[in-house]
Amino acid sequence: MNLITKLQEQYLLLLLEGDRRGCRGLLQEAQTKGITASDLLLDVIWVCMEQISELFRQDRISFVTEHLATRINRTLADQLQVHLSASDPAGQKLIICCSDMEGYELGAQIIADLFEANGWEVLFIGSGVPMDELVQLVGQVQPELLIYFGTDPSGIPEVRRSLQMLHQIGASTKTAVLAAGGVFNRAEGLWIEVGADAFAPDARSALAQAKEGITIRKHLVAVEGQPKRRRRKGSLLIPVDD
Prior knowledge:
It is a single chain. With 242 residues, the protein is of the alpha/beta class. It folds into 2 domains: 3-81, Methionine synthase domain (Methyltransferase, Methionine Synthase (B12-binding Domains), Chain A, domain 1), CATH 1.10.1240; 93-212, Cobalamin-binding domain (Rossmann fold). The protein contains 10 helices and 7 strands. The strands form 2 sheets. It has a 5-stranded parallel β-sheet with strand order 2-1-3-4-5. The chain has a two-stranded antiparallel ribbon with strand order 6-7. β6 (229-233) and β7 (236-240) form a beta hairpin. α1 (3-17) packs antiparallel against α2 (20-32) and α4 (63-81) runs parallel beside α5 (106-117). It starts with a helix and ends with a strand. Residues 223-242 have low confidence and may be disordered.
């Protein structure tokens, strides 16, 4: 068992116990052994975040356990952020938003912190922003990248409507849209259905794709008055809004 795998297992057990002090001490000890803040965010915080979410979806842990673990993770992610090695400004802008409630913003927060450390100018607006204001912000900022982070299927209709509006009015022809988060991992092809240009299963992939450059797809927008259609992607049946 390598050091990271052992660390993941120990950290997850402490999270499930709600042991804030133990989790903090474990990460501090790991840093003394040469594990960087970036690796701790990507390989420990992120991985255990997804494991906690999966245990909760399977009804194997309680609301209390899930909430305790999520808040410990968020606190320690905040503390690790100040230890990230900062790159020179890259001259690129990112807007990142969430389709879910505030309690599930951790993944988006980690992505925001890592992009900022890589020299990007980051606007992390979180969840609950009206889609017309999001589209207006994209038009004003003209970012190279917009990341939509989602973990729960209930937020997907809002993602689809927001991206439809973004494409219909042509708010920014230079902005690529990247879908990330657990809901896009679990539903193959969902990122295409909502109108994104690319999909990242995790933060490391998001960084790699942004570095390589994301090709903006040609998006078909619904014509006003056209009846709603439904498209099937495997077992996924999704209404396409006008």
